Amino acid sequence: MSHLSADLLAQAKDVVALYPEPRSALIPLCHLAQQQDGWLRPEAMSEIAALVGVTAAEVRGTATFYDMLHTEPVGTYVVSVCTNIACLLGGALELLEHAESSLGVRAGGTTPDGVFTLEESECLADCDRTPCVQVNHRYVGGQTAESFDQLLSDLRNGSLAETVPPHGTLVRVRRSGGLAADKDAIATERAAVADAQAKRSEELAAAQAKAAEESAAESEKVADPGTATVASPPPSSKSVPAPAPAPAPAPASTPPATRPPRKPKGGPA
User: Per DSSP, what are the bridge partners of residue 78?
Assistant: First the structure.
């Protein structure tokens, strides 16, 4: 039984058909599944893996690489506060502290009612309006403590529903057509690419076989000494000087003669 709804499953199959390789549709399908559940459930990742021909582990490995994809539950509204340098100078840390106080959770947490998840983010590319805040990847402009509290109130009462959809919805306009090209032309181009790849593979295999034959021939020459010729070094035209004679050993030194002690005068002979 499919975890994705019938409508999303049909969209997923249409997306896969747009790509020459099914696995190229992995990330778009992750966004579709997140649109349904607000995050990527394990069963959704398994179904995506089956649709694109990879393992569920590969889907999870890809999803965990991107900040916009969540493999754990998040709130209906993911509020991101930028604390990069421009926003930092504009009071981002103070705003983040206020947001934590207003929501009752630290950055990275979700409110008990499941409505808000608060994130501390790197640059959100809205540096002229600091500190920058996004909700579900929609810009809501530079915020103050007062405007932030009003933003939370507007999100709770649904007055921003047209501007900020629930988390997971990136695009609310459904694509009505596929590639703007003739299907037969696409099939012809793909066949030509496949033929070119096969030709390159054949050429590579032939080159490898030739290299292997040449290597084997060289090995046979080395193994058979009768067929191998060893070049002798050319005679030198310069005369080699005779070695210098060894120096004569130094004569042994003779210790100086010692005189016998003198007898004292007047003593016994």
Answer: 117
Backbone angles phi, psi at 180, to 5 degrees: -85, 60
The Cα–Cα gap between 152 and 230 comes to 89
CB 212 within 8 A of CB 205: no
Q: CA–CA separation, 57 vs 4, rounded Å? A: 19
Average confidence score pLDDT of the chain: 85
104 sits in the region (left: phi over 0; alpha: psi -120 to 50; else beta) called left
- Tell whether pTM > 0.90: no
Using one digit for the tens of pLDDT, what is the confidence trace for 57-84?
999 999 999 989 999 999 999 999 999 9
Dig out the tokens for 7 from the structure. Answer: 């409508």
The mean pLDDT of 25-32, rounded to a whole number, is 93
Between CA 88 and CA 95 the distance in angstroms is 10
Find how far residue 192's CA is from the centre of its chain.
32
